[in-house]
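Re: How this chain folds, sequence and tokenised backbone to follow
How to read it: Take the token row as a discrete description of the fold.
Start of record: The labelled sequence and token lines come straight after this line.
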Amino acid sequence: MPGRAKKDATRGLRLNMIIDQLNKKTPYGGVTVKELAEKFEVSERQIYRDLNTIENHLRVPLVRHETGKTVRVSIKAGYLPGLSPEKATVIFLSLLQQKGSALSGHINEIKDAIVSTLFKYHYDPKELAVEKLQKRIHIVEETLTDPEKVGGLFAALVQAIKDSHRVKLWYYTTHSGEETERVVEPYGLICKHQNWYLVGRCLMRDDVRVFRVDQIKDVFPYTCEHFVYPADFSLPDYMASSWGVINDGKVCRVLLKFNKRVAHRVKNVRYHPSQQIEEELPDGSAVVSFAACGLTEMVGWLFQWGDMVEVLEPAWLREEMRALAERVAQVYQV
């Protein structure tokens, strides 16, 4: 590569890296010219020239904040970095997975926003994969009967989480078949198999509870009743050992035998963070262990495997699966 071209390529790479650094540092007050010069091993004068190019030729709006003798540079609020068609496709594919869920009402709006952004950066909308993929990808999932209504409740819960205020829920309880009223301090949301769940402190139970969002019939925000998010609570830690979304605090070791027809599945798919292959048997089957809590949710998962998976431990879970199989057999007796 000729010297001039090599120099231009090096500077072009540095400009992109400076923009990336500005994006990362802007939420934290920006970055100084000195810090950029040290990071990219060039003079401060060169950084000033680079910032001028970024602002006036690449059209990235910059803001300078003076604190004493220090000037910090950041990207103007509201500016979105350029989006390539490849990145847009990945974003849109992730959105399609939410079809029929509480978030489905916004899919087309976001797709239009993505297309508009790409058009701004001179990509031809007729050639964009996001337009073609919407017609050529079909997501096979359970869907809500009224996603718009659930989406509205979901938005109210997100707002309550952001603002740390209590909400009143009218909630359908599966085991009793009744609708109950709960006042909850919402800590966060979790998603499992496209189903959304609210995690929060239930004032009636004075404990953390999990509520399936599509079983919430209505939400009333208590915008004047704020709460303090507990410093010792972590949503990832709370869910870490749960098989599904229930954390009953009782972590139990489960030993399962997958026969040769499905043993490859547990080699390719991790169903739980604790999953370990204990033994691969001569007949092609595999013995797999898990350490999880909330095992009532595991029963349905085990049942879907039919005769291809056998519970070895614990004894009570083995007995529960045997009894369930017996009850199902009775349903189908002629």
Remarks:
- The first strand starts at residue 31 and ends at 32.
